[in-house]
Fold this protein.
Amino acid sequence: KFTNTENQIAVGKILEDAETNKKIDPNETTIAEWLKNHTINYQTAHFGKWHLSNGGPSNHGFDQSDGDTGNDDGSQGDTLQTDPKKIFDITNKGISFIQQSVTNGNPFYLQLSHYAVHGPSQANPATYNNYVQYPIGTKHDNTLFGAMTTNLDESVGMILNQIDSLGIEGETYIIFTSDNGASRGTSNNAPLKRGKTYLWEGGIRVPFFIKGPNIAAGSYNSEPIVGYDLFPTIAHIIDQNPILPENLDGQNIKSLLEQNTFNREAPLYFHSPHYEVTGSKPPQSSIIDGNYKLVVRYETSEFYLYDLSNDIGENNDLTLSDPLRSRAMTIQLRDYLLETESLMPNLNSNHASFTGTGDDVDNDGLSDSWEFKYLLSFGFGPNDDPDNDKLSNFVEMQSGTDPYVYNDELKKPVNTFYKILRAEHDNFGPRLELKN
């Protein structure tokens, strides 16, 4: 294993990033397209950051939008602005859309994707001056960021007030969430570890609020959910038996919102096979299954296991004390990445540590792409036997069998996916079921 990450970055990246694809496949159905094809003719709008190219929101089911926008479109220039990060422009467009929809008697779906609180920070002068009077460390740690956050909060209040004034609060759902944790240096994520771009909790655990019919005011739940749960949830809110696109990620959480009961049927997966811009965050993937979370760092071939119910700060690695769970969750994560044909990082042939060529840059006798695809690691050697079935990694690679699953006389092929049957008791152990 490589362990001196800072030195690795100093002499060049150990890995090559996986290819980045931020375009929506035209064959995929967005929530806006699904709503517009529903029996009720929804009006749809998206204002603010799109960041997905491919022609912008109008090519993916939205009637109104700001076009094919990105982070730079939110910059207003000077630090102090009457409309910082276009917060109020975006909000006023949303309010006009709501008014128009109600006037025309149309149900509506509105998505406001604010540029705030993305850097660089900007704020309204009056709001900024209110923060200046308080020393740092009393009411805030960052004057400008605090003021910008307050301006965003004011815009949320404008939307809530408009919904109330139109008398549609009893039939409108309002969802507020963030796409990632705060960047380190602009806001404190403690007790969560790290922040934006990382797959530690500081990067992926974010606020989620929802207000609407049959949701008890002031209710709270700590059940982990994810952004891609929203599509099936919204569909089930407006239709008791919706016909949804095939292979849709996410799970309907309507029962969690209304009855505070929910059974997550599959783990949550996060895949970030890229370096952060400065190189401080290397490619990572993670899986959350119940209270447990596994993180793999591809650059160092290290795996980390945490019990989030007792260790929200991810300080106590359980991989050595709970190896069965660690391996079982590794296989779950690996099989999901295989099943979804996820793009993986690979070794950097120009790095000074490597002397090999082709698809064996580290010159260990194993295909680099095979190692990342089936082991999620390049830290094993050709003679290693992770599953203790007396077949080395080299033999497993040559025979097309699974290096992480004990191979009996059936010689289970590596391209067969295995479902880990989770035990709900303390005697957890990986039990494998062949899934055709």
Remarks:
- The first strand starts at residue 15 and ends at 16.
